[in-house]
Amino acid sequence: MNRRFTLQTYLYAALIEGMIALLWLLLIPSDPKSVWLFGISKFRLILLMAMILLLIVTSTLTYKAKKDPRWYQKATQKIDGIFTQEGHLTTGTVLTLSGFLSGIYFLYTAFTTTDLFLQGYFTRLAPFMFWFTLMCGQAVPVIFKDREVFKGYFRSHGIAVLVLFMILISGLAMHSYLWELQPEDWDQHTMFNQDNKFDLERQDIFAIFIEGDRLQQGINPYQRSLDFDTVEWNQIFATYLPISYTLAWLTQEIGLEDFIQWLGFWRAIFLIANLGIAYLLFYVPYHRYNNLALAVIAGVFWLFNRWTLHMTMIYHIDFIAIFFLLLSLILWPRHKIISLLAFGLSLSVKHIAMFMIPLFIIWIWQSVKNRSIKQFVQLNLVMASVPLIVSAPFLIWNAEGFVKSIFVSAIRISESHFGAPAIDTLLGLSGIPAKLPMLAMMGLIFLAAWAKKIKVFTAAFLILLIFVDFNSVLFRQYMTWVFPVLPLAICETMLTPNKVSNDLTTRGQVNSK
Asked: Where are the domains of the chain?
């Protein structure tokens, strides 16, 4: 590992490999059944456009690296600056090696599978994955700028990285195994699957698929709420923000119109988010608080507790929303813009964390310099930008139906998968008044956060805990929202952070002597 493989070398190699991948993609014979435009399918046209765009970007960067020494020097220094921190080295190592290994596995599957459906899609994805795999593999010598950095990092963190990969691979194996597992394979006494609780057509994921299908037909998913006088029940309404339904529609547009095939694509996305959560839960205790034991406990607990396993078995979308929520909390306050965008993306996927909006507003106000109203408003707009952007087309399409559908969550009739009623149900409250006990408890957390008596992870944990214990409705998937924040709150309240800190990276600089 030495400096001979420079950023410029990387860009040249990536450009050549990208051209090979583009030629490969163009030479793949078209399937007459899927021809859409210019003799090619929608799916391959999207891949071509994406590959050409990436080649343009790569070409531009390669040209600048060659012709503009000042730009190249700054780019090299910036990359070196990022990867002088051990946390970034861990993240870079995990991402590049995971991408390289998963790419090899994908290419192996593409060339050996006998499944006609997989052959149709994997064959066309193979050129893209070929390029992706090589770019991930050759990124390693760029990340580790010289041999001493490589030796110093693995001397200090080799065991932790090995343990981390063991945890992630074990989680990958377990959750992939659950995809093929039927209730009758493990529920021998029919104690858990009474009334077909694991029936896919009774899960939210099937409802999302149906809404995507309706969008394909030009039907507004929020329109149905206007056909009813009351919207207290949510089973027949689209209650999520539009990003889930829009992505469901887009993936059906490229040919995944069969539910099982469509689900096969999305469960891979859910698994990536699931493993991403495990990585974040390992990262914070280890790199911010120098506690490998708690990092291992947090990662293992998340991947193998009953609620996470259950979520994988019913294919809910919560993993994606939880990942971006955790990312936003971890990045706050050193990377405010990215943190707020990540929080907005979490809300856009599933708005469970909406009760944390006041917390972020408080934290924004406390973080702005000189109590600048302008900066305060700007940061709040950043937080709201993603939900507003994804919602705008549907607000224009049918604002009344959109608002009425989203409002279902606020007035829905109390319900629980556990038969455990909240206090509002026992008091006979319904609608908005039923939320008052929960909001009153949350108000205390907001006051504590305002007074700076509790920190970020602790405040988030308490808000989510109150939501689970005081909300009128309690579903099994809600339990997964509380546990990932718990080990982070423990770190925050019981451990001393490292002196050198840079959210998502720390434990100091690599010793390159």
From this structure: 7-145, 198-506
